[in-house]
Design goal:
This protein is of the alpha/beta class. The protein contains 13 helices and 13 strands. It has 2 domains: about 10-20 and about 295-390, Aspartate Aminotransferase, domain 1 (Alpha-Beta Complex); about 45-290, Type I PLP-dependent aspartate aminotransferase-like (Major domain) (Aspartate Aminotransferase, domain 2, 3-Layer(aba) Sandwich). Helix 6 links the parallel strand 5 (about 155-160) and strand 6 (about 190-195).
């Protein structure tokens, strides 16, 4: 796959958690789809069967990866829309509570806070930022997450928000176990999972199938085009949540909606789709996922990523003045670390970037983050370590 990515030919790249490089075959698939749509006519009776096949095959592929039936998989533009559109349709009542992990992305946090303001909900915090086990301490971390969940759930908690893989520390959350614990709670809270850092990197089927809302994007670890993602939804969300941002794709029959049908919406995941999307992006994402499959199964790819992140973590640990956030090797490809001294992390990013090495800085906790991918080479890890050594 590496040889198909022009962006990897002239730089040392560790920012897959922000955006993955687009392989040339994926770009060619997008271009070919555009051309076919124009040849058929962008709005003719000839083009609709082609568009229908593109949508249905993409939905089926993503649903399969998430371990759910296609009717439970809504197509989205990004993680935020995948989280927020069903979130705002949940039947939450004034006085009920939302429990949000303290490592969630600001976009999701802000959406939950605004929902709480409008619905008069209470917001509580689930402390997971301090869980820094890594390596063979994952079982302890899982137990600590479940213990924190027990300590912070209230009788009227109705929603829990937690990422599958924390975007800042790189810690893995036991989503299936969390879902099981919530199912035994008297109020049976909904579970919303931000899967921005998991889809395309780690096996997701168990967690996605267990969650109520499991939202992901194709442009990060899957190396697809930006502007296309998906969200796996539970059967109870499909039954209980109302559509929010509404368009023609939300409707089962446009004419009945105009006629005043009291229930014009699809009763499956499509009730959370809106209107016109970029169809050619679907061919691009499917191609990127096919290229990933050629690298091995999801489990095999994760093993490769873990071997690289372990090497990076070990070499960072050995450097003077460098402190990885996790106490053991990362469970996936996110390797966050801090440098001693007063140099701002953003300055370090600029210094490395000037040498063609790209990582990123994060604000909470203040740290640097490098991502290893199945397309990462051991030589790149060595190059990064050498440069960090000159800075630290």
């Amino acid at each position: 796959m590496r040889n198909h990515c022009p962006a990897l030919a002239n730089k040392t790249y560790f920012n897959y958690g922000g955006q993955g490089p687009l392989p040339t075959p994926s770009l060619e698939a997008i271009t070919s789809s555009w051309q076919q749509i124009q040849e058929l006519g962008p709005f003719t009776t000839d083009v609709w069967p082609f568009i229908g096949r593109e949508v249905n095959s993409t939905r089926a592929l993503l649903a399969g990866l998430c371990g759910v039936a296609p009717h439970r998989l809504a197509l989205s533009e990004n993680v935020t829309s995948g989280c927020v559109l069903p979130l705002w349709g949940l039947p939450l009542q004034p006085g009920e509570r939302i429990l949000i992990g303290d490592c969630e992305h600001p976009g999701v946090v802000a959406a939950c806070q605004e929902l709480a303001r409008r619905r008069q909900l209470q917001v509580d915090t689930l402390p997971v930022k301090q869980l820094r086990g890594g390596g063979d301490q994952q079982a302890r971390t899982d137990a600590d997450v479940l213990s924190a969940l027990t300590a912070n759930l209230h009788a009227n908690t109705r929603l829990v928000v937690l990422s599958h893989l924390l975007w800042n520390t790189g810690q893995l959350m036991p989503i299936a176990a969390v879902a099981m614990q919530l199912s035994q709670h008297p109020s049976h809270p909904y579970l919303l999972v931000d899967a921005a850092q998991s889809f395309g990197q780690i096996p997701v089927a168990e967690a996605a199938a267990a969650s109520d809302i499991y939202a992901f994007t194709g442009h990060k670890w899957a190396c697809g085009p930006e502007g296309l993602g998906g969200v796996a939804l539970s059967e109870r969300v499909l039954a209980e949540a109302s559509p929010t941002l509404i368009g023609w794709r939300s409707l089962k029959d446009e004419s009945r909606a105009i006629a005043g049908d009291p229930d014009p919406f699809h009763h499956d995941s499509r009730r959370f789709e809106v209107a016109t999307s970029c169809i050619p992006l679907m061919a691009g994402l499917r191609t990127s996922l096919e290229l990933l499959e050629r690298e091995g199964s999801a489990e095999q790819r994760l093993a490769r990523i873990q071997a690289l992140s372990k090497k990076l973590w070990q070499q960072l640990t050995a450097l003077s003045g460098v402190s990885p956030l996790l106490e053991g090797p990362p469970p996936a490809g996110l390797v966050s670390f801090q440098l001693a001294g007063t140099t701002p992390p953003a300055t370090t990013v600029e210094t490395l970037g000037a040498k063609g090495i790209w990582i990123r800085d994060l604000a909470d906790p203040t740290c640097l983050r490098a991502c290893t991918h199945v397309a990462t080479s051991e030589t790149e890890v060595d190059q990064l370590i050498r440069q960090i050594g000159t800075i630290s």
